[in-house]
Structures are given as structure tokens and as C-alpha cells.
# Entry
Amino acid sequence: MMGAPDRVPGEPFAAKPSKDAEMDRILKSMEGKVLKDKGSAKKDLKQQVVKQIKDTGIY
# Structure
């Protein structure tokens, strides 16, 4: 489970203060963007290299 690793099973649930919850949401969304962008960054680099090779006129 990915819920709350710092909470002992059976311990009563205590909601996080809103600032902490907001920070967690922001961090998770940033992590998701990084994971999504990782693949596209490689594709962008490949496209850039191919374009530069074509622009030189050799191929």
C-alpha cells in the first residue's frame, strides 16, 4: 500500500494539516510530469539530431 508509510497499522488515522496535504499533492503531480516527460525528452533529442543531420545536406 502506498498510503502513509509513517503510520503504524492499527494506529488511528489523523488527517494531515491542509498545507502538508497540498504539498504532497504538488510533489506527486511533479513526479508524474517528470515520468511522463522522460520519454518525450529522448524523442525530442532524436528529432533534433535527425533535423540537424538533414540540414547539413549530407544525407
